[in-house]
Design brief:
Blueprint: E1 2-11, E2 14-24, E3 29-33, H1 40-47, E4 53-60, E5 63-64, E6 78-81, H2 93-104, H3 108-117, H4 119-122, H5 134-146, E7 152-156, H6 164-179, E8 183-187, H7 191-197, E9 200-205, E10 208-214, H8 215-220, H9 224-229
Parallel strand pairs: 3-8, 3-9, 6-7, 7-8
Antiparallel strand pairs: 1-2, 1-4, 4-5, 9-10
Length: 232
């Protein structure tokens, strides 16, 4: 289980997260929902150690992540797919995936299973990442992360700007990871995606988490989203 306990996070003197707590179990999907600037991305970066936590703690099973330097956190079983993908643009598809394999020490079986999830990448292995379409780049960002064989994966708006067929592929892969007992933290603005996939939903408002509800509760009362996003 990944657990965020009462964390405060600031950029220099500007505090962004206030006493924020979350938890996600293996084989479940926690969606973070909130308006732009609410603190969702900062939450993910805090889990990865990219922004120091001033107070509180973040643990995964028995590992206290807040005591680790950022470069050691992926080794604890956590992968991060940031908004904007952050690929190695001049490297090929295969080389980007190889970086994930090297980080985990995984072998050919992992490489092959990831390509089964994203067969389009099999046709692009020697193509430079910067020449891929936006949807293909998102596939590669996820594939690189999955080459690390994560037990937890953090996804920051993975369907942003994608065409419907690509969104459906990303959803399918996320559900496949859930079936493999991976814990998933998903930042998502597509309300229909949240309603369809979430096991639990944490609303983030001005750096705070006023409530977390079950996915079933949200499906029964979808108007709850309007309270926090101002959308129908």
């Amino acid at each position: 289980m990944l657990e965020v306990r009462s964390i405060d996070v600031a950029y220099d003197k500007v505090q962004v997260l206030f006493n924020l707590s979350l938890r996600v179990e293996r084989g479940s999907i926690l969606c973070l929902v909130g308006r732009n600037g609410a603190g969702k991305t900062t939450t993910l970066k805090s889990i990865m150690g990219l922004i120091p936590v001033r107070q509180g703690s973040i643990t995964f099973d028995q590992t206290v992540l807040t005591t680790l330097p950022p470069h050691e956190i992926p080794g604890s079983g956590i992968a991060y797919v940031p908004q904007g993908r952050r690929l190695f643009a001049e490297l090929s598809v295969k080389q980007n995936m190889d970086i994930g394999l090297m980080a985990s020490g995984a072998g050919q079986d992992t490489y092959s299973s990831v390509l089964e999830m994203f067969p389009k990448l099999q046709e692009r292995l020697n193509q430079r990442a910067e020449t891929l379409s936006g949807g293909e780049q998102q596939m590669l960002a996820m594939a690189r992360a999955l080459c690390m064989k994560p037990e937890v994966i953090l996804l920051d708006e993975p369907t942003e700007g994608l065409q419907p067929s690509m969104i459906e592929l990303i959803r399918t892969v996320i559900l496949q990871l859930k079936s493999q007992n991976v814990a998933i933290v998903l930042v998502e603005q597509h309300v229909d995606t949240v309603i369809a996939m979430a096991d639990s939903v944490a609303f983030i408002v001005h750096g705070r988490n006023p409530e977390t509800i079950s996915g079933n509760e949200l499906r029964d009362n979808p108007d709850r989203v309007e309270r926090y996003l101002g959308v129908e």
